[in-house]
From TrEMBL:
Catalytically driven reaction(s): guanosine(46) in tRNA + S-adenosyl-L-methionine = N(7)-methylguanosine(46) in tRNA + S-adenosyl-L-homocysteine
Highest taxon of the lineage: Eukaryota
Function per UniProt: Catalyzes the formation of N(7)-methylguanine at position 46 (m7G46) in tRNA.
Subunit and interaction comment: Forms a complex with TRM82.
Gene, per the UniProt record: TRM8
Location in or out of the cell: Nucleus
Protein name, entry field: tRNA (guanine-N(7)-)-methyltransferase
Residues of the full protein shown: 43 to 274 of 274
Family assignment from sequence similarity: Belongs to the class I-like SAM-binding methyltransferase superfamily. TrmB family.
EC number(s) recorded for this UniProt protein: 2.1.1.33
Active site: 128
Keyword presence, rRNA processing: no
Pathway in which the depicted protein is active: tRNA modification; N(7)-methylguanine-tRNA biosynthesis
Residue numbers binding S-adenosyl-L-methionine: 36, 59-60, 105-106, 125, 206-208
C-alpha cells in the first residue's frame, strides 16, 4: 500500500508553499511535527499559540488525512476577532495558516519530509499500542527510529509522548532514556520554561485524549530533550 504514498526524495524537493501559502517566500519550514496526528486536535490547539511557527501533522490513513486537510482549509477561512487598535494588515491575522497535514508513513519517510535539526518539537500522542510482543517492532518508538528522531530534532528540541496504555508508556520511557541523545525532562521543569500551554494541549486537545477522558482513563505523559552530544 506504500506504493500509493507520495513522498519527496528529499525535504527540499517538497513544495512547502502548497501547504503554507501565506508563508511563501519566508523560507520557513515546519518546526513542530505531530506523528500520527489523527484528526488534528493538537495542531488546531497549537496553531494560535505559535502563529509564526509552521507545524506539520503526519498521518497514514487517507481519509483521516483528508479530513484534517479540510478542517484546516475551513478554519483558514474564518475571520479572526477584530483588533481595532491594530495597524497590521488584516491578511496577516488570518489564522491557521501555520498548520498543515501530509499523508505519510512516518516510520518510513520522516527524513524525506524533515531535514536534520529542523524540529524543535516532536509529538507522539496516544500512538497505536501494538499490544502483542510479536507486534512490538511495529511500535513508533524503537531504537532504530530514535536515531531518526534525534536526526530531525535540533539540540534542545523536545519529544512529547502521552498514552493511556501503561505498558506502552514504560516501553517508550525505557527506549528513549536508553538512547544516548535524549534525556528525560519533567513536566514541572518544562512548565517553568514556558511550555505549559503545549503540555496542556498534549494532555487534552487530541481526539484520542478526549476519548480517554470520557472513559475516565489514566494518561501517562513523558517528555525528553534532545541533547547536543553524547555524555561521557
Ligand atoms: N495522535 C492522535 C490523537 O491523539 O488523537 C491519534 C492517535 S491514534 C490512536 C494513532 C494514529 O497514528 C492513527 O491515526 C494512525 O492512523 C496513525 N499512524 C499509525 N502509524 C502511523 C505511521 N507509521 N505514520 C503515520 N501515522 C501513523
Amino acid at each position: 500500500s506504500d506504493h500509493a504514498l507520495e513522498y519527496p526524495p528529499t525535504p527540499t524537493a517538497y513544495e512547502w508553499s502548497k501547504l503554507y501559502p501565506a508563508f511563501e517566500g519566508t523560507g520557513k519550514l515546519p518546526e513542530f511535527a505531530d506523528v500520527g496526528c489523527g484528526f488534528g486536535g493538537l495542531l488546531i490547539a497549537l496553531a494560535p499559540l505559535f502563529p509564526d511557527t509552521l507545524m506539520l501533522g503526519m498521518e497514514i490513513r487517507v481519509q483521516v488525512t483528508q479530513y484534517v486537510a479540510e478542517r484546516i482549509t475551513a478554519l483558514r477561512l474564518t475571520e479572526p476577532p477584530p483588533t481595532p487598535e491594530s495597524t497590521t494588515p488584516q491578511t496577516l491575522h488570518k489564522p491557521y495558516q501555520n498548520v498543515a497535514v501530509v499523508r505519510a508513513n512516518a516510520m518510513k519517510f520522516l527524513p524525506n519530509f524533515i531535514e536534520k535539526a529542523q524540529l524543535s518539537k516532536l509529538f507522539f500522542l496516544f500512538p497505536d499500542p501494538h499490544f502483542k510482543a510479536r507486534k512490538h517492532k511495529a511500535r513508533i518508538i524503537s531504537t532504530t527510529l530514535l536515531a531518526e528522531y534525534a536526526y530531525v530534532l535540533r539540540p534542545g528540541g523536545i519529544i512529547y509522548t502521552i498514552t493511556d496504555v501503561k505498558d506502552l508508556h514504560e516501553w517508550m520511557v525505557t527506549h528513549i532514556e536508553e538512547f544516548p541523545l535524549f534525556e528525560r525532562v519533567s513536566e514541572d521543569s518544562l512548565r517553568r520554561e514556558g511550555h505549559g500551554g503545549v503540555i496542556d494541549a498534549v494532555r487534552t486537545s487530541t481526539e484520542e485524549g478526549k476519548k480517554v477522558e470520557r472513559n475516565k482513563g489514566e494518561k501517562w505523559l513523558a517528555c525528553f530533550r534532545r541533547i547536543a552530544s553524547v555524555r561521557s
